[in-house]
Amino acid sequence: MNRNKDDSASYDIEWHEGDMPYSRVFGDHFYSRADGRAECNHVFLNGNGLPARWQENSHFTIAELGFGTGLNFCETWRQWRAHRPDEGRLLFVSFEKYPMCSQEIGRALAAWPELTEFSGPLIEHRSGHTSGFVRIDFNDHTALEMHIGDALSCLAQWKDSADAWFLDGFAPARNPDMWSEELMGAVFAHTVPGGSFATYTAAGWVRRNLEAAGFSVNKQEGYAGKRDMTVGSKVS
């Protein structure tokens, strides 16, 4: 998850319930306390119509606001490997201002042994990268780009567009800059016609910012007893 606050500290992580990362700066966990991997599937993958859409577009780009622990990337990679077309190519692009260190990522993702073969290479290649642009080609079918810095500034320099967006900043009430009208407008500008987004939040002002940007916006049932989440598309 990204952070757009103007102080020099990092997320200031403490660990709850063993290996659950919690940011003292934002007063929020990095993912659902029920099951972060299941949340990824319900909100971000299913909310964007994945993996079914991969069969329609073998060269697929996913962009994400907030890399955090890398959980969304690792679970997406796992699902991509299981469902991709034979010649499929996935580019996962993430915008993150304060990347977690490899040790923190490893501790957070250790909760899901089924992700070990994906988190291992991520941790190995992430070591030492704390600023700028990083691209990692894990194999012929899967690549990760990380744009490390302020999300709005990085998006202004990004030349590509996404087929699907994972909007995964900290809770809007605690991290409003990550859900601003200006940033949602930049997300829209970097979405292909017919592209989509999904997010766990259903905050009214966030939905209005997405609508103002140009997205068609709808609610769906949220994860783990949460009443609503938000999905939408860029009508072509």
Which characteristics define this entry?
single chain, 236 residues, alpha/beta, Rossmann fold, 8-stranded mixed sheet, 11 strands, 29% helix, globular
State the total count of DSSP E strands: 11
What's the architecture in CATH terms? Answer: 3-Layer(aba) Sandwich
The ordered H/E elements are EEEHEHEHHEEHEHEHEE
N-C termini distance: 29 Å
- The CATH superfamily appears as Vaccinia Virus protein VP39
Strand residue content: 25-35%
Strand order of the largest sheet: 6-7-5-4-8-9-11-10
Judged by helices, strands and strand pairing, the structural class is: alpha/beta
Please give the radius of gyration in angstroms. 16 Å
In the CATH hierarchy, the third-tier topology is known as Rossmann fold
- The whole-number mean of residue pLDDT values reads 89
Number of helices: 7
Question: Biggest β-sheet, characterized?
Answer: 8 strands, mixed
Poorly predicted regions: 1-9
Count structural domains: 1
Backbone shape: globular
Please estimate the helix content.
25-40%
CATH class: Alpha Beta
